[in-house]
Amino acid sequence: MPDLVSLNAVMQPVAVARGLPNDHYVSEETFQAEKAEVLFGNWAAIGFGRDLTPGEAMPIDFVGLPLVVVRGREGGMKVFQNTCRHRGMILVAEKKSVGGVIRCPYHSWCYALTGELVATPHVGGPGHNTHQDIKRDELGLVEIRSHIWRDVIFVNVSGTAPAFEDYAAEAIALWAEYEDKPLVAGENSTFQFDVACNWKLAVENYCESYHLPWVHPGLNSYSRLEDHYHIEEAGKFSGQGTLVYRPMISEDGRRFPDFEGLSPKWETGGEYIALYPNVLFGVHRDHAYAIILDPVAKDKTREHVSIYYANEAAATGADWAEMRAKNTKMWYDVFEEDLFVVEGMQKGRQGAAFDGGKFSPAMDGPTHCFHQWVASQFCPDAVAAE
Amino acid sequence: MSKGLDDALLQAHVRQDLSALVDLYTKAADVVEDLDAECFYLTHAYIFALDFGDARANALHVRLVHHGREA
Q1: So what's the ipTM on this one?
Q2: For A68, which DSSP code?
Q3: Which of A1, A95, A298, B1 has the largest count of CB atoms under 10 Å?
Q4: Mutating which of A128, A131, A132 best tests the B interface, going by the most B Cβ atoms within 10 A?
Q5: What is the pLDDT of residues B6-65, one digit of tens each?
């Protein structure tokens, strides 16, 4: 169980607060507690909608929980526990196109893509496929609450979080201008990193601009520290914005088409937020991205990056392939520059004398905002001190 | 079941050829005289038809329901 005295120190104002204690990064017991309270108790990201076409099923292991994401014939998405109701066998071992039903490879109980149990062969003896005690309408797949926003598949495993539209209302409002715009998955625009750190360190590093001039000197050459601002929505999300975003321009003078109808703010604006717990978003006038942090273990995180464009031509057209590749490489290089710091902070937390750290009141507000939210998951009655 | 049909079934299983399995298990059901054996093979044909999304599942379902073996 996390140390509530230390968590109380996290809940203090940023000027006097300490960061989350070491056990939130190095303790298996605390990792398991966070799994229940932080990852399963909220809306966590598990995958991208782009990865499934209608009729496909894709297994996802989410912090040890076997899930299967299914896209129905009409395009709707559902998430189920990937476990047969009979003997607990894993139903879908690898991503596949489902011909008609999801058939358990063990005794061939069959489930519709909508989760209903539709066939139970020999369940009443050889050639007898019904039995009075096998009530199919009570034995459908266990559905997990799910929602898609900005192509990210979210799940609330506990079933206790508010509806996603309420949970993420402030984030949706922040980028309301983008809500009705197409968000087209870019071809050759995904990549992954396997990182030796706790997933929260990736959130924390993403939230703040303090490190930019030191870790990303290339970015800082045009986007200086003073061109950034904090984004903080207590208990919801935090991050940073820039006032000087410049779209990429090709050698022949072209740039990606903009999302249509944006306000002047976005001509030179870019914003980057961590929607708690585990997804990082970025938006600009001409492209956007999402990074899902898969908490593989207490000290291992897989980062899944996916980039999106404003229309089909920019996202998949051959005319834009070279520009897309350049943009993907640019983000790959930027995010790769962050790896040594998140892995370094993980190693640093093996030092037992580290007390959670001292925040810069001026620069670390967004990181402290995230720490307060994590701490509040274990002491829900605590009120963050202003 | 004839050896030829048995061999064909085994080969279809190795190939994971669901369409062939529907066809061959239906043939197996058609040549046996015992109702339980018929329904055993019909069940396999039906399940593989469901798995494959094959329209033959409907007729196989009707046969099993007729024999009181499926809901």
Answers
A1: 0.96
A2: E
A3: A298
A4: A128
A5: 999 999 999 999 999 999 999 999 999 999 999 999 999 999 999 999 999 999 999 999
